[in-house]
Amino acid sequence: MYRHEDYAQVKLDLPFGVTLNDDNRWVQLSRIIPWDEIDQEYCKSFASDDGQIAKSSRLAFGALYIQTAEGFTDEQTRRHIQENPYLQYFCGYESYCLDSPFDASMMTHFRKRISADMIRKINDAVFCRESLEQSDNAEDSTDDEEPEQSPSIATTNRGTLILDATCCPADIHYPTDIGLVNHARELVEQMVDMLYSVAPGSFGVKPRMYRQVARKKYLAYSKKRSHTLRETRLCLRSGLQYLRRDLGYLTALVEQGAPLAALGNELYRDLLVIQEIHRQQWQMFLAKSNRVEDRIVSIDQPHVRPIVRGKAGASVEFGAKVTVGLVGGYAFLEKFDWDNYSESKILKDAVEQYRQRFGVYPKTVLADRAYPSRENKLWCKERDIRLSGPRMGRKSVEEKKSETKQIYQDGCKRVEIEGSFGVCKRRYGLERIMTRLPDTSETTITIGFFTANMERKLRLLFAPLSDWALDYDFDLDCFIIFPRNPDIEVIQ
Fold it and tell me: Which of 41, 74, 387, 470 is most buried, taking the most CB atoms under 10 A from its CB?
């Protein structure tokens, strides 16, 4: 059950005659976030009016925003909202309250109710107009040759779209085939013990699984600094054989009447994942390959896939791959997927989403070498869009020089999205996603980009004050402001 509340006018009553400072960033943020639109989308998460009254949309969204902006855990978020009056004002409280706003476990429910699609709609509603205006005001890239005008396009292209993809790693143990198989074996042994303990007299003698021998083999391999290919394959084969035999014992117990319900929901889910892991690992072992479709690298998070990025620090990352479009300094999430995908196939969808978002096609699309394929170049040329990268066809010496200069200028502008990725990962928690479920992880990633956009908007609001302050020197002892320019009067 959800009850709508009006947040048009929120005033926080504080004890001891204390008032809130209007220049505080949480007060400023509370005035620019569209709480009414958030409340309308939040209401859709509740199917009926039955049950206990749910937490308000402002408290739920505000708690997620505070957690992302400050890098808090769920418990730290709850405690800081309880102790800080500015955070309570931001979350819609009418008076300062000493009681706990919610239990820390409610943060998981907030992430489920506030979906990634909901945050994308709010992000588009808040930043569309401003991002396009800033993109128009930015310095346009210099083209030596005007692009050919297509007669089929009647609208005027506006803005610059910067496209790039990155990986948001999940919080999992670095996966190895032998370590994954050994973990699966230990879980299956635990399942056999649980099923046998339900009715031990009905199944005869408890099967021997040689778990100590298997454990010694695994430790002997893992403690060595380096391994030969033969040692790796021998250890992997023995681990797969132990796992296959334990799964056979488990199947025999179930056929004799052991209830799978005794495992519980979590262990039963792990059993289904382990059976698929055994199939994939055995297939790769026989084929002497390291690739298989939809490869599972974590039992706890089977939706996580290896993403080959080719970076210097980590050539392979394990998490979600996202494609982001940057317009006027604001980030818009174009695609989210746990499976690896070709970035060149995303360009058309990203440009069409740009048109739906702003009503026009972009004037320029800046992307790395993975995007400008021949098909994408022809598609962009038909729509009067300049796509970064070398042009098709033969070129003269002068054209090659101007093209090299243009590519260098595009590369300098495209660095902006790399900096945006770095800020979102280091500052807003996208470097390691701590949530375990796929939908809550998507919410965490989406609200990370939304928080980065909102913090940028807040900085731009205070930019005029910062420019004004550069013209003055301050004497805090006398509370006098001295102008650096003699034509400006003294402020006392």
Answer: 387
